[in-house]
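With this grant's support, we have paired protein sequences with backbone structure tokens. One protein thus recorded is set out beneath this paragraph:

_____
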Amino acid sequence: MNNLCVAHRGFSAKAPENTRAAFKMAMDVPYVNWLEIDVQLTRDGVPVVIHDFSVDRTTTGKGKVKDLTWQEIRAMDAGIWKGKEFQGEQVPSLDEVLQLVKGRLKLNIELKTSGEMYPGLEEKVLDRIRAHNMLPEVVLTSFEPKALLRAKELEPRVNVGLIIDAHPRDLLSRLKKMGCTFLSIGYSHLDAAFASELHRNGITPMAWTVDDRRSMAALARMHPEIMICTNRPDTWGQLFLNLIAPRIPFWRKWKGWFR
């Protein structure tokens, strides 16, 4: 149970995903070590934190992120769909999220792209990370290998990781060729032997997206280096509380949060 907890798009089970409300709620959980966020570019080149390629599902607006300006997206409500108490939440810029979490949590920043959808995405994201002096505190991940290769070319010091929902036989060799030190993998494709092999080769695995206690416990038993990416950090915390915290003298200070 030494596994690190990653809040998927923030505390997205309770708050609107990829918003300041979700991030702040996750930051209040003692067991959250990382945030996982998604970054795209507006039409005028501003890196914004949103998952879908369109704004339709999570905002009051319509259209594709790449076709809208920052001001147009900023005017949309990104919280009301989750509940009236979140009315007025906005799509944040990457700058705002970096400023919010600096020194408190680390960031898994997914470069949300496909092919050549966002020319310059890697450069703009790296520029903002460097502006906040947060290079050691982030990992850039993507389903798109070309985005990871471009990021490493632009900034050899940055940690990168492939996102994949499969386990092809050549996966480890592919990760090495891309210079990955991180692997974001659908949790059903991970086992103890592969987790150990990744660890021996300097690659940290993150299992996504895990919301039930049984799966969390099974992954924790596989290997202590497996990071648990979840919409429900409270579920992970409850598991920790029940199994580990009774042996820790200061556990009571956290107990009330999970009720």
